[in-house]
Amino acid sequence: MSDTRTFKITIFGAGPIGMALAGALVSVGGFDICLVDQMDELLDPVRALKLPVTVCVARTPDNATTPDKRKSVLVGQDLVVAAVPDHAVAEIAALAAEVGVHYLDFSRATPAVLGALQPLAANRAVLTGCGASPGLVDALTADLIGSFPEVTDLVIRFGALPRFPTNRLGYGRIWNIDGLIDEYLLPSTAFRSGRQVTLPSLEEYERFTIDGVNYEAFMTSGGIGDLGRMPRSLQNMTFKTIRYPGHLDYMRLLIDDLHLRNRPYVLKGLLNNGLPIIEDDVVLVFITARGEENRQRVERSTLKRLSPALQANKFNALTRVAAGYAAYLLTLLRQGALPDRGFIDHHQIAVDPALKSAYLSPFLSAESNPNTQF
Question: How large is the average pLDDT for residues 30-53?
Answer without folding.
Answer: 87
